[in-house]
Design brief:
- The protein is of the alpha/beta class.
- The protein is built from 11 helices and 10 strands.
- Helix 4 (about 105-115) links the parallel strand 5 (about 90-95) and strand 6.
- The two termini are about 25 Å apart.
C-alpha cells in the first residue's frame, strides 16, 4: 500500500512511522528486529530503511603503496526491506540515492524492489563522501534528487533506460522526497529551497519528509510556505530526540539545524547523563504532542537503534 494511501485512510489521524539504519557489514537482521520489535505496538504503517553510499579507504599493499578502495559499510537495504515486510506485515520504504549509483544500477534496484512488491521509495541525492568538499555525482548517474524522481516516474510510466524494451511493465512506486524547514545548507535562501521542492513534486514526487528540527514553528512556517508555493502534498515531520550532551554540537554541525535556547539550557544544565536524556525526551514528547494536535499527517522518528527512547516517546504521545 502506498504511503499516501495510508494518510488518506487515516482521515486526519496522525500516524507514527520509524526509520532504521542497516547494520554494519558483518551484522545481522537481528539488530533491526531488536530495534523494531518494541516499536510494533504503535502499529506503524510503514518503516523507512536508509541507504548508504560507498566510502573510500586506503589499504596498504605489500609494495608499501596505498591503494584506494571503495567499500559499502552498511549494505543490505533491499534485503532488509523484504525481511521487514515478511516479519511484520508492514510496508517498507527504502531510501535510494543518486550518489554512488549509475542510472542503470538504480533501474536494476527499482526492478528488484518492484518484484518484492515494495511500493514506496524515498528519493534522495545523498551527501558528499567524507573528505570531499561537495557532492560529486557518479558518472552516468543522477545528479540531483529531481533526476532520480524523474527516473522513478518514468518507470511508473513503463519507460526504461533500454530503448529496446517495448511495452515495459509499469511500476507503481509512491515517491517521497526530503524537505528542509530550515533550508538545505546548499540552498542560498528559503525561496530557492521551496522552488526546488516544488520542482520535485511537479516531477512526480507524492509526499515530503522533513529533515529533523527542534522548533515546531520552523515546521509550521515551512508547511505554510509550501502551500503558498503550490505544494499541496503531505508533509511529514521528521523527529529525533537529543539524548547526549555532545549532540548539542554534533547535531547542528551535521544536519545544519538550530537548537532552541530552552532545549540547550535544559540539557546542558542537567546534573547527569540520565537527566540530559530525560530533558531531550521531554522536549521531543512536547514537540510530538503539538504536531499531532495541529494535524501533522505522521510523526516520523529517526530511531538510530535506540528503540527504548522512541518507545517512551510514543507511549507518551498516543
Amino acid at each position: 500500500m502506498k504511503v499516501t494511501d495510508y494518510f488518506k485512510a487515516a482521515e486526519g489521524e496522525t500516524l507514527i512511522s520509524f526509520e532504521v539504519l542497516p547494520p554494519l557489514k558483518g551484522g545481522s537482521m537481528q539488530a533491526i528486529f531488536d530495534t523494531l520489535d518494541p516499536l510494533m505496538e504503535f502499529k506503524p504503517p510503514f518503516i523507512d530503511v536508509t541507504y548508504h553510499r560507498e566510502e573510500f579507504v586506503y589499504k596498504r599493499r605489500e609494495s608499501g603503496y596505498y591503494e584506494k578502495t571503495a567499500i559499502r559499510k552498511r549494505p543490505g537495504t533491499v534485503g532488509i526491506c523484504a525481511s521487514i515486510m515478511h516479519r511484520y506485515g508492514v510496508d517498507a520504504v527504502p531510501h535510494l540515492l543518486c550518489g554512488g549509483f549509475t542510472r542503470q544500477e538504480t533501474e536494476n534496484a527499482l526492478i528488484d524492489l518492484a518484484f518484492l512488491d515494495v511500493q514506496n521509495i524515498l528519493a534522495l541525492r545523498g551527501d558528499a563522501r567524507k573528505f570531499e568538499g561537495k557532492f560529486i555525482p557518479e558518472k552516468e548517474g543522477n545528479n540531483y534528487a529531481i533526476d532520480l524522481v524523474r527516473q522513478i516516474d518514468d518507470m511508473n510510466q513503463g519507460k526504461y533506460l533500454d530503448n529496446l524494451v517495448e511495452d515495459g511493465t509499469k511500476t507503481n512506486f509512491c515517491i517521497g522526497v526530503a524537505g528542509y524547514p530550515e533550508k538545505h545548507f546548499e540552498a542560498p535562501n528559503m525561496g530557492m529551497e521551496l522552488q526546488r521542492a516544488k520542482e520535485k513534486i511537479d516531477a512526480g514526487a507524492d509526499y515530503i519528509v522533513t529533515q529533523m528540527f527542534f522548533n515546531n514553528d520552523k515546521y509550521f512556517e515551512y508547511v505554510d510556505a509550501c502551500r503558498a508555493a503550490g505544494i499541496n502534498v503531505p508533509i511529514v515531520p521528521g523527529l529525533k530526540p537529543l539524548t547526549k550532551l555532545y549532540q548539542l554540537n554534533s547535531i547542528p554541525r551535521l544536519f545544519h539545524v538550530d537548537l532552541p535556547d530552552d532545549l540547550v539550557n535544559a540539557i546542558s544544565s542537567a546534573k547527569d547523563a540520565a537527566g540530559r536524556k530525560q530533558a531531550g525526551v521531554e522536549w521531543c514528547i512536547a514537540q510530538s504532542k503539538e504536531l499531532k494536535a495541529k494535524g501533522a499527517p505522521c510523526l516520523h522518528y529517526y530511531t538510530m537503534g535506540d528503540s527504548d527512547t522512541i518507545a517512551k516517546i510514543g507511549k507518551a504521545v498516543l
